[in-house]
Q: What sequence folds into this?
C-alpha cells in the first residue's frame, strides 16, 4: 500500500490570477471585472464608484448589470488630471496679466 500524498496548495493570496480570455472583438465596453483590471483597482471599488455615481457607466436595460465605455473612462481619468507646477504657475501668471489689462 502506497502512502497517501496530499497536493500542496498555495494560499489564495499567493496563487497567480488566471487571466480572462482575450476577446475576438474590439474592447469598447468593459464589465466591472475588466474595468477593475484596467484601472488596477478592486471590483468592490468599481461597485462603490457606480453606487455613488462617481464613474460614467451604462446600465443594461431590464438588468442590474452595468458596462463601461472605455472612451468615457479615459475622459473621466483625464478630468482628474492635476496640472504640473509649471502649468499652474503659467495659469496664475495669465490670470494676473488678464486682470492687469482689464484694470488699465
A:
Amino acid at each position: 500500500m502506497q502512502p497517501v500524498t496530499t497536493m500542496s496548495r498555495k494560499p489564495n493570496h499567493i496563487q497567480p490570477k488566471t487571466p480572462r480570455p482575450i476577446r475576438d472583438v474590439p474592447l469598447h465596453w468593459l464589465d466591472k471585472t475588466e474595468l477593475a483590471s484596467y484601472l488596477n483597482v478592486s471590483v468592490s471599488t468599481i461597485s462603490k464608484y457606480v453606487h455613488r455615481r462617481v464613474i460614467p457607466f451604462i446600465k443594461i436595460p431590464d438588468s442590474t448589470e452595468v458596462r463601461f465605455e472605455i472612451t468615457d473612462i479615459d475622459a473621466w481619468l483625464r478630468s482628474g488630471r492635476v496640472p504640473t507646477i509649471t502649468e499652474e504657475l503659467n495659469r496664475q501668471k495669465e490670470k494676473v496679466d488678464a486682470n492687469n489689462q482689464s484694470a488699465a
